[in-house]
Structure formats: C-alpha cells, structure tokens
C-alpha cells in the first residue's frame, strides 16, 4: 500500500516579529521578514483498513490509537493532528478515515522556530498528498492558520503557516480579514551565504508556551497600551529596514537592525524577555555580536545573533556557560514538499 509523506521547513524571523498578531495586524497592518532553514517538520500517512486511527509522535515516543470516527478528541498531546483530521473530514471527505500518521520535528516544541504551525502544515501536506485535495499554497497556509487559531483556539500570529508552506526568504504583509501577501525576495546567493556564515542560532535549553505571551501582547493592544502599540509599529519599521539591507547587500547593518528590534520587542509584553535571556544577549554582544533577537514570541527557546567577520566562534564559546547549544543550519529555498512511495 502506498505511503504519503511531507516535510515543511521551520523558520527564523529576522524582523517585524509580533506585528502579524491580531488585533494589531487588523487595525494597523503588519510586516515581517523571515527565512526558512534546514530544520523540518515531517509527516507520514499510512492508509489502513482496520477502522483505526493511530497517531505516532516519533520525537516524543508517544502513540495514541482511536476508533475511526468523523471527530477526534483534540487532546493536548495530539491536538494539532486531531485538529487537521477533523477539519479535513468536515470540509472535504465527510466520512471517517482509517490510517496511521507518524510525525516528528527537528526542533523542540516551544522553541520559537514555528514548530507547531509548521507541523500543522506538514500534516495538512501529507493528507493533501493522500486524498489529492485541491489546495494551493495560499489555501494550505490559510487553512493551517484557521485550524490553529479558530478550531483549536491557540493564540499566535500568521507568519509561520505561510513561511512553512512557501519557503525561502519572504517579506510578508498582514492586514484585516486575515489577509496575507507573501513577497518572495530575490537576494543574491553571496549575500545569503555571508548572512548564514555570520548568524549563530543558539538554543537556550528552555521552552515556553508562546500562547500566554501572545495573549498578553494582544491584551496590550486591546487596552490601548501606547508603549506596546508603538513598539509594534517600530517592529514593522524594522522589517522594512531589514528588507532593504538584504536586497542591497548592506550586511554590515544587520546586527544594528536586529539590536533595534530587540529593544522594541521587549516593550510589546513583559514576558518576552527575562534576566537569563538578557544575560545571554549581553554576553554575545560583549564577545563580538552586533545584535540579536529572541526567536518567536519570546520567553525562551532559540536566540539568534549576528556575528560579523570571524566573531562567531568567540560568541559561541562565550555562550557555553549558559548550558544551551548552538544549532547549525542553512537557508532553504523550498517550502512544503509532499510525495508518495
């Protein structure tokens, strides 16, 4: 029997993070610059004929088995898988399915690289490959967003589903009615090579729930918190600055632009940084980095530093005292890929 697979890349957000979150993006419009990297979410669907649904989280050594039905309980451990299945049955096939799905992600949950949304995209991709669903890139990204935010009620932004689906380096614009425009950037390969050489991706060995931080950020907008709202406007400005620097090859400005965003991002919600993350940031700067950021909503997970020249080695060595680890990566050009064997 045929097996249907998919893989979708995780992403680093280089600028504009948080401006893709409603209600800010609905009221003022948001902008983000992100790039997909060579870490992935993977999904495999194996059709069966025993009337069962088996969900295997290979990276967490967990398996849940259900009797086939049109609606799966969205339990916490397999909520994303159940959410995708329930929407596909409701919208496309209108009958129970029988299958085994195996998933794994190349980074820990809560690490700030868009793991949850990328996994939803990968699961959707595997089902689309199996069932031959008539879904294009924008359709898959928007459906993934709706499943997470509306069906499952998980707080978050809009960038991750689109970066995982489209892949590459993108300048994304967000407006009301969940409208997203993905603008692929044609950046010279030598600029990207130099950028990846100078970036250090550091896992702080901590994870966090992004939902709580994002909910605080949303509440600041609803409450008219002027400091927080102005910080989000500055993050939008940062995304435009980053786009121009990358397109023109002004890589010497990257660290300064990241540092600009670091100081404004922390004003969006109090939980975004903490003394531990501040200490890591300051240590990186003392040892040669010219700027950096927290990846994702903040509070933990991965941090990213721009280390020009040959300073990356000194920065990596200086961060060893904090007990985390450096993760190597390359930029990727492609987004979601699916195939059948």
Describe it.
It is a single chain. This protein is an alpha+beta fold and 341 residues long. It has 2 domains: 4-186, 2-Layer Sandwich (Ribosomal Protein S5, domain 2), CATH 3.30.230; 189-327, GHMP kinase, C-terminal domain (Alpha-Beta Plaits). 40% of the residues lie in helices and 24% in strands. Strands 1, 2, 3, 4, 5, 6, 7 and 12 form an 8-stranded mixed beta sheet that branches. A 4-stranded antiparallel beta sheet has the order 9-10-8-11. Strand 3 and strand 4 (62-67) form a beta hairpin. The longest helix has 23 residues, at 226-248.
Brief description of this entry?
The protein is α+β, with helices and mostly antiparallel strands and 341 residues long. The protein is 40% helix and 24% strand.
Task: Give the topology, please.
Blueprint: E1 4-15, H1 24-28, E2 30-47, E3 52-57, E4 62-67, H2 79-93, E5 99-105, H3 115-131, H4 137-151, H5 159-166, E6 169-175, E7 179-184, H6 189-198, E8 199-203, H7 210-222, H8 226-248, H9 254-265, H10 275-286, E9 291-294, E10 302-306, H11 312-318, E11 325-327, E12 337-340
Parallel strand pairs: 3-5
Antiparallel strand pairs: 1-2, 1-12, 2-5, 2-6, 3-4, 6-7, 8-10, 8-11, 9-10
Helix pairs in contact: 2-3, 2-4, 3-4, 3-5, 4-5, 8-9
Essential attributes:
341 residues, alpha+beta, Ribosomal Protein S5, domain 2, Alpha-Beta Plaits, 2 domains, eight-stranded mixed beta sheet, four-stranded antiparallel beta sheet, 11 helices, 12 strands, 40% helix, 24% strand
Helix amount, in percent?
40-55%
What general outline do the C-alpha atoms trace? globular
Distance between the termini: 9 Å
Structurally, the number of domains stands at: 2
Largest beta-sheet characterization: 8 strands, mixed
User: Helical region count?
Assistant: 11
Please tell me how large the radius of gyration is: 20 Å
Secondary-structure element sequence?
EHEEEHEHHHEEHEHHHHEEHEE
Determine the structural class based on helices, strands and strand pairing.
alpha+beta
The fraction of residues assigned to DSSP E strands is 15-25%
């Amino acid at each position: 029997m045929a097996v249907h697979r998919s893989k979708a890349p995780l992403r680093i957000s280089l600028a504009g993070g948080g401006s893709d979150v409603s209600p800010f993006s609905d009221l003022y419009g948001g902008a983000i610059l992100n790039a997909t990297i060579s870490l992935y979410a993977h999904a495999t669907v194996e059709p069966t004929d025993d009337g069962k649904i088996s969900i295997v989280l290979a990276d967490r050594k967990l398996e849940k088995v259900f009797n086939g039905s049109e609606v799966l309980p969205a339990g916490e451990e397999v909520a994303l898988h159940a959410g995708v299945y329930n929407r596909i049955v409701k919208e496309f096939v209108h009958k129970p399915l029988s299958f085994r799905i195996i998933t794994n992600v190349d980074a820990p949950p809560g690490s700030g690289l868009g793991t949850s949304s990328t996994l939803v995209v990968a699961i959707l991709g595997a089902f689309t490959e199996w069932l031959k669903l008539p879904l294009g890139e924008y359709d898959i990204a928007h459906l993934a967003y709706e499943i997470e935010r509306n069906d499952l009620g998980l707080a978050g932004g809009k960038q991750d589903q689109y970066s995982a689906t489209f892949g590459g380096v993108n300048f994304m614009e967000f407006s009301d009615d969940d409208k997203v425009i993905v603008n692929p950037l044609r950046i010279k390969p030598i600029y990207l090579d130099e950028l990846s050489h100078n970036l250090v991706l550091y896992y702080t060995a901590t994870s966090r729930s992004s939902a709580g931080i994002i909910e605080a950020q949303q509440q600041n907008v609803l409450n008219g918190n002027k400091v927080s709202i102005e910080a989000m406007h500055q993050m939008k400005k940062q995304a435009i600055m980053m786009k121009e620097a990358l397109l023109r090859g002004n890589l010497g400005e990257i660290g300064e632009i990241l540092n600009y965003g670091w100081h404004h991002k922390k004003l969006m919600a109090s939980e975004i940084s903490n003394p531990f993350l501040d200490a890591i940031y300051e240590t990186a700067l003392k040892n040669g980095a010219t700027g950096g950021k927290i990846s994702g909503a903040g509070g933990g997970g991965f941090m990213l530093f721009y280390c020009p020249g040959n300073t990356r080695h000194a920065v990596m060595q200086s961060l060893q005292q904090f007990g985390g680890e450096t993760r190597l990566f390359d930029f990727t050009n492609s987004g979601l890929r699916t195939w059948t064997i």
